[in-house]
Every structure is written in structure tokens, then in C-alpha cells.
Design a protein that fits this description.
alpha/beta; Arc Repressor Mutant, subunit A; 2 domains; 42% helix; 24% strand
């Protein structure tokens, strides 16, 4: 899961980053309005954590712009402001949840998982794609009853494919989802092919159909109607 944290309190930001990265999440930070705006316009995220009070602008405005440009992104407001008006306004702008500071990181984690399940997995902890099952709580993948040993990147790639099944995803989109803005420092996207190659091989060896379809000069599609020859 890819998370953007919009927060100007450096200590809180570092605590959230450390906690979530330890849990296997890919996180990026935006300490002010301009950085947040540039990131939400340039990259896609599964979840955005948005503080209302940030330098250079309003967190509510970031929320409004994010929901206009990328409505599928889950959003959680994190703010010390606990007035009813702020909460109502945030929810009216499309926020999925609202968490008042100070909060426990475990509670934030639970809220993140709940929003992701609701927005991407129809509220389920298990994603089922034909014979493939992805257990999001245990971060475990099975083909029928066979456990597939995936690396964290391969697991995330499979979950991303399953959330976008039958849709064409460009190499750039896949790379940005897996590596965030670090992709801008890379010379090419050959590593995308390598990760997809490894994922495909492991799934097929475990008995799955070959659902990963290469779309010439564009990218890939997780075609759930495809069958291995």
C-alpha cells in the first residue's frame, strides 16, 4: 500500500513514517501545501493522511483538489482541530475518515486498513481472483491451497493488479505505485518487467492461470478471463 502523509510536525511525521514503514507500507511525506499539491498531481496513492493546518495553504484545499483529480484515493484527516464544523467540512469534501490528535499509531493503522478495505476490497480482508486468494491481514497469497512465497514488492504488485483487474496499466503507473517519486531518479523501467516476470513465474508454478497479459508498447493487464495455453 502506498501512503502520502501531509503533516508539518516533524516529530509526528517521523513517528508515522517509522511505524508504517515497519509494517511494510511505502510512504512519502509532504510537509507543506506546495509539496502536497505537486505530489497528488504527479503520483497516485492508496491513502492520503492530511493535516488541516499546513504551511502555505489549507489541508482542506488539498483534500478538495485530491478528490477532484483522483477520487479513488482514500483520505483520512489528522488534525488537532476538533470542531464539528471542520469535521463536517472535511467529510463533505470527500474525506473517508477523521482522526483527532493526539492519537495512537495503532489506531491510525487500523483506520488506514479499514479505509483501504472499504475503498479497494469491498470491505473484505481476502481478495479472491478465481483460484488466487490474497489474505491482506496476513499478507499471504495462495493458489487454491498452495501458499505462494512472494517478496513484499511481488505481493504489492499482485494486490495492485487485483484491484485493477482487466484494466491496462502502463509501466510508468506500475513503477510509481511500487516505488513512488523515487522513479524519477531511475534511468529506465526495466525492473518493472523483472518483478512481473518473477510474479508470473511463481503464480504459474503454484498452479494459477497466466493472467498477466503484456500490452505491446503500453504496459500490462491482469486479464482474469485469460487462460493458460
Amino acid at each position: 500500500m502506498k501512503i502520502l502523509i501531509i503533516e508539518d510536525n516533524q516529530d509526528l511525521l517521523e513517528n508515522i513514517l517509522t511505524y508504517l514503514k515497519r509494517g511494510g507500507y511505502r510512504c512519502e511525506a509532504a510537509p507543506d501545501y506546495d509539496t502536497a499539491f505537486n505530489k497528488i498531481m504527479s503520483f497516485t496513492y492508496d491513502i492520503a493522511l492530511i493535516d488541516l493546518m499546513i504551511p502555505g495553504g489549507s489541508g482542506l484545499q488539498v483534500l478538495r483538489e485530491l478528490k477532484s483529480a483522483r477520487p479513488q484515493t482514500g483520505t483520512i484527516i489528522i488534525s488537532a482541530k476538533n470542531s464539528l464544523d471542520d469535521k463536517v467540512t472535511g467529510l463533505e469534501y470527500g474525506a473517508d475518515d477523521y482522526l483527532t490528535k493526539p492519537f495512537q499509531l495503532a489506531e491510525l493503522h487500523a483506520r488506514i486498513k479499514a479505509v483501504y478495505r472499504r475503498n479497494n476490497l469491498n470491505g473484505n480482508d481476502v481478495v479472491q481472483v478465481n483460484e488466487i486468494s490474497i489474505h491482506t491481514k496476513k499478507m499471504e497469497t495462495k493458489v487454491n491451497d498452495t501458499v505462494v512465497d512472494l517478496t513484499p514488492k511481488e505481493y504489492d504488485l499482485l494486490l495492485y493488479f487485483s484491484s485493477n483487474k482487466n484494466h491496462v496499466l502502463s509501466k510508468q503507473t506500475i513503477a510509481e505505485h511500487l516505488w513512488g517519486d523515487y522513479v524519477g531518479h531511475l534511468d529506465n523501467l526495466d525492473f518493472v518487467y523483472q518483478h512481473i516476470k518473477n510474479l508470473r513465474k511463481k503464480l504459474i508454478q503454484a498452479g494459477a492461470n497466466d493472467y498477466i497479459e503484456s500490452i505491446y508498447s503500453i504496459g500490462y493487464k491482469f486479464n482474469v478471463n485469460r487462460r493458460s495455453p
